[in-house]
Amino acid sequence: GENVEQHPSTLSVQEGDSAVIKCTYSDSASNYFPWYKQELGKRPQLIIDIRSNVGEKKDQRIAVTLNKTAKHFSLHITETQPEDSAVYFCAAPLSGGYNKLIFGAGTRLAVHP
Amino acid sequence: NAGVTQTPKFRILKIGQSMTLQCTQDMNHNYMYWYRQDPGMGLKLIYYSVGAGITDKGEVPNGYNVSRSTTEDFPLRLELAAPSQTSVYFCASSYSVTTNTGELFFGEGSRLTVL
Q1: Residues B97, A94: C-beta atoms closer than 8 Å
Q2: Closest chain B residue to A100 measured between Cα atoms?
């Protein structure tokens, strides 16, 4: 069936280092790939997304890259800060379209001062 | 705007009991969703709706029912609660696919424990 696999499940970095989280998806028709951040005890919130007609998108310290041929997309966080510590989820649409998202299992990122 | 509002925030149920989780949004979004999040896990789609009167199953619909009589409201019904339904439930909404964004706006979550 359609699914989204996310790696690694946990990631520990020193403040100022970069962090990379990778997701693979199974549905080749998928065309929208968002990333959500969930702080402890809070609701998930969108931090960046990319559509299938572009290969990379940046927003300050975060960027997302997409490789449609390989069916994977990655979140890159540069110059990490302690407030980046959270769980990050990737997602992809079930059976195409922009909505009806399936989420990856999440990556717990810890940024140590 | 209040965004997406869920009630109750916490609830303890006994095995076999039934209950309804309420969700309402004031952003005039067509799409609404129910996800569950087990401890330390990702979000699993239970049901979703593309508009009033239209609902469809997600990844894990068994044991749940939904209805969408208005654009604003999307209640989730649990019948015959089981311990496996212990989870945090998130309601979310988004604009139609024809607009420029697919962002999901989540409610604060409802923590349900079945004992």
Answers
A1: no
A2: B48
